[in-house]
Amino acid sequence: MKIILLSGGSGQRLWPLSNGAQAKQFLRLLKSPDGNKESMVQRVVRQIKEAGLLESITVATSAAQADMISNQLGQYGADIVTEPARRDTFPAIALAAAYLQKEKQCDLDETVVVMPCDPYTEIGYFQTIAKMVKAVEESAADLVLMGITPTNPSSKFGYIVPEATDAQKETRKVNRFVEKPNHELAEQLLTEGALWNGGVFAFRLGYIASILEKYVSAPTFAEVRARYQEFPKISFDYEVAERAESVAVIPFTGQWKDLGTWNALTEELPTQTIGNVVLDPEAKNTHVVNELDLPLICIGTDNLVVATSNDGILVADKAHSEDLKTHLAQLGPAARPMYEERRWGKYKVIDHIEFPDGQNVLTKQLCIRAGKSISYQVHHHREEVWTIINGTGRLVLSGEERNVKPGDVIHIRREQFHAIRAITDLYIIEVQSGDRLTEDDITRYPYTWE
Amino acid sequence: MKIILLSGGSGQRLWPLSNGAQAKQFLRLLKSPDGNKESMVQRVVRQIKEAGLLESITVATSAAQADMISNQLGQYGADIVTEPARRDTFPAIALAAAYLQKEKQCDLDETVVVMPCDPYTEIGYFQTIAKMVKAVEESAADLVLMGITPTNPSSKFGYIVPEATDAQKETRKVNRFVEKPNHELAEQLLTEGALWNGGVFAFRLGYIASILEKYVSAPTFAEVRARYQEFPKISFDYEVAERAESVAVIPFTGQWKDLGTWNALTEELPTQTIGNVVLDPEAKNTHVVNELDLPLICIGTDNLVVATSNDGILVADKAHSEDLKTHLAQLGPAARPMYEERRWGKYKVIDHIEFPDGQNVLTKQLCIRAGKSISYQVHHHREEVWTIINGTGRLVLSGEERNVKPGDVIHIRREQFHAIRAITDLYIIEVQSGDRLTEDDITRYPYTWE
User: Fold this and answer.
1) For residues A281-310, b (16+ Cβ closer than 10 Å) or e, as one string?
2) Rounded mean pLDDT of B178-202?
3) B372 with B424: CB under 8 angstroms?
4) Of A78, A429, B41, B429, which residue has the fewest beta carbons closer than 10 angstroms?
5) DSSP state of B292
6) What is the ipTM of this complex?
7) How far apart are CA A215 and CA A208, in angstroms?
8) Is A170 on the interface with B (CB under 8 A)?
9) Handedness of CA B128, B132, B137, B141 (dihedral sign)
10) Residue A39 has what pLDDT?
11) Please, which residues have CB within 8 angstroms of residue A78's CB and are 6 or more apart in sequence?
12) Does pTM surpass 0.90?
């Protein structure tokens, strides 16, 4: 059995902790059983493991999220399939399926489960997935979905209506799908035993392979990926589920929620404050997540969420926190992420000034993890000054290698080839200056260390 | 006529905008008539000038505030007298009086007015000062005080009780002083025509000179200052006002308040937001002062004050903002100010890390104003790397002078003599590292530029 985890979203609704590179599912805010903190995606994969379902995980995601996935799920040996561009859930799932078939040489009879990477749920959810796998293996249907037992006639979800005759069975044949009904129709659907569509699908690899074959027929995964733009921009629900001739649903009843807003997330935080915070004991129903190094004092507040990061500061009444997106639009597009986790380590922007003469200066604190390195590269529009502040490493500058240690200062001019590899965890203060400071002002070259 | 302005206080109640170096009176948050912003002390001196009283101002303050005073009042030619250590208002005033007498050679018949540097008040206040000066010149009393007409029986103020027979006169002889009465007594005092003591005093220089002579008798100001610890730690009210044989009071009726709490200050801010802020139009009675470079979004809040600086972040219900001091105590003493204005320019700390191996690294952005310089100095516990990022200057390093420009990197080792002078406004990223990073790890030497 193979699991495909879908990891997408830019996670604006949890700004400033989430940004383009750090979507909501990567925020390490939830309490893990070992007393530390874990992210939504780490929680889901831990639960998959606890349910005995951890055989093989493939994460379908964007290039921007690949480093985060690798850092957070590396220990589980998860494979990562990155979309060349954002399209929709059908192409993303089809690409991951092509990877399993053509790159991993999976058997077409293999059962595949597709699921989101961030539901906040419980063990029963994963037990239901095990039942779905069994149903596929027993050929109960071509496609088996999970149906979440509704708690109210919500208009936010798609509904799966089972055949009336199957109402008491565990595996129910699907009569039809209804996308986001109005309140009145939703009430009617509940009387028919309809379930919410939670975006969890099980099928044999061959079933999806035959559908993707209609759009892109190519012998290797690399060729399928190169022709990614030929897949239609359509959701898996529309392209596959609604067109399938043989579809079944298995219900799940239990805790299931999306921690995608501050209001929902704060309900599941392990503590009222995270970070350097002094919270007035008289503050009511207030949650503060302070990821800045500055102290934060919160006095006499009520029903408030305060969140800070190098990207910005949010102070919001919890009931109004869902309006965040509208207000965020007023900031205009963020010039750049102010902190990022990368495969080689992490950085944060600690200062940025634009001078009237056009000179732009960006100062970063970098941490390169022991054994990792930054690729051999040149910049055309900026120079960089590196002050090594902790750890040791190996530097190559214009083809010459040498060891570096705290107190060493390296001046990298425009067009000068450079790379650095951390021997121990290596901390650097980097001062970039130039007329144009953009992430894409990098040309990378291969390099073999001596 | 000479004015002595008293500038003290660490201004914790307006944290995080005020700190040890930047007391509340220096915050440039009030609207000035030219449409720009001015601080409380700038507003008071502007009003002194508008009232035609600007002949000579001497500011009695601490060494920590001297640079701020000089930056903010430089244009008025104010003299600054710094106390060698903090004592109380009598020694501070006595020292400033000794300066006028022994350093500026003022006549002992000269009228002196002592006043706080930060009342939020109106023109009538300064017209009352003019009347006090006239009363001293006409020898109405040895000491003339301003009495603020009370608006309520407050227990926060000292009261001045005039002679009953003088109730209708403009200049009233003082019967007695009552320090911070309880509510009942305050009500009784109001029926007697008592006034609040606003801390404004007028007298002839000779009057105070004869009192200070009792404690320190020395021919020069430098000698008086060197013996500062011989002055008693006592307030001017107790040492002078309550012991004076001939005291009069002149009432002032009008706007007079202390903008010393966030609740009081926000009432006088020109706009609801200052800095990079998106404020939800539905937020009620909310004020946001954001001095960080990060964007701040505030949604659905009510009766809230949010203030940020490099020292920290405050989120407080306005009615509770007076409790700030208690909560601030929980932070423990601040390791260092995170930004400061100095005579030579300003700096902010942009990053600070302490490594497990004891290595300490502090990164600052410095701006040295054109024509100003940093003194010739050495550090014993740290080295510094300067990356010049904008402007031009003249550097001296181990006795050798040279010009510097953007892109230049200067590595200053422990015990290496250095100084820098800005030719144009000079911006530097400074990386300090060492086992001990404290402001006092500086030994300064004289230097004459080539």
Assistant:
1) eebeebbbbbbbbbbbbbbbbbbbbbbbbb
2) 96
3) no
4) A78
5) S
6) 0.87
7) 12
8) no
9) positive
10) 95
11) A5, A45, A57, A58, A59, A69
12) no
Residues 75-114, chain B: which have Cβ within 8 Å of A?
none
CA–CA distances in Å: residue A318 to residues A28, A41, A329, B284 = 20, 24, 19, 15
pLDDT tens digits, residue range B323-332?
A: 898 898 888 7
- pLDDT for position A20: 65
More confident residue, B333 or A95: A95
Average pLDDT, rounded, for chain B: 94
Which residues, in sequence order, are CB contacts of B332 under 8 Å at separation 6+? none
Residue B398, pLDDT above cutoff 70: yes
Query: Within the 365-384 window of chain B, which residues sit less than 8 Å (CB to CB) from chain A?
Result: 365, 383
Rounded CA gap, B344 and B339, in Å?
A: 14
Q: B358 — contact with chain A (CB < 8 Å)? A: no
The bridge status of strand B111-116 relative to strand B195-204 is: antiparallel
Nearest CB to A298; choose among B315, B351, B411: B315
Structure tokens, B442? 């500086």
End-to-end CA distance of chain A: 43
Q: Which two tokens stand for residue B122?
A: 């109106």
The residue type of A67 is D
H helices present in B243-390, as ranges: 262-267, 324-329
Beta strands in B32-171 (DSSP E): 37-38, 57-62, 79-83, 111-116, 119-121, 143-148, 159-162
**pLDDT for A335 beyond 70:** no
Distance from first CA to last CA of chain B, Å, rounded? 43
H/E stretch holding A30 reads strand A30-31
Q: Which amino acid is at A369?
A: R
Residues 275-304 of B with CB under 8 A from A: 278, 280, 282, 288, 290, 292-302, 304
For the beta carbon of residue B171, count every other beta carbon within 10 angstroms. Answer: 18
Contact B201, B143 (CB under 8 A): yes
Residues facing A162 on adjacent strands: A174
| Amino acid symbol at A331 | L
Q: What are phi and psi of B212, to 5 degrees?
A: -70, -25
Distance between CA atoms of residues B152 and B190, nearest Å: 8
Chain A residues within an 8 Å CB radius of B411: 409
Nearest chain B residue (CA) to A311: B294
Per DSSP, the three-state class of B332 is: coil
Bridge partners of B421? Answer: B373, B394
Helix axes B40-50, B123-137, angle to 10 degrees: 60
What residues have CB less than 8 Å from B319, skipping those under 6 apart?
Answer: A300, B263, B303
Higher pLDDT pick, A170 / B332: A170
Q: What percent of chain B is helix, strand and coil (3-state, nearest 5)?
A: 25, 35, 40
Tell me, what's the pLDDT at B99?
Answer: 98
CB atoms within 10 A of CB A170: 12
* DSSP letter string, B159-206: EEEE-GGGTTSSSEEEEEEE-S--HHHHHHHHHTT-EEEEEEEEEEHH
- Cβ atoms of A232 and A91 closer than 8 Å: yes
Tally of residues, chain B: 450
Question: CA B68, CA B47: separation in Å to the nearest integer?
Answer: 19
Q: What is the pLDDT of residues A275-334, one digit of tens each?
A: 999 999 999 999 999 999 899 999 999 999 999 999 999 999 999 988 898 898 888 776
Residue B353 to residue B333: CA distance in whole angstroms: 18
Q: How far is B184 from chain A (nearest CA, A)?
A: 30
The label of the residue with tokens 């965020």 reads: A328
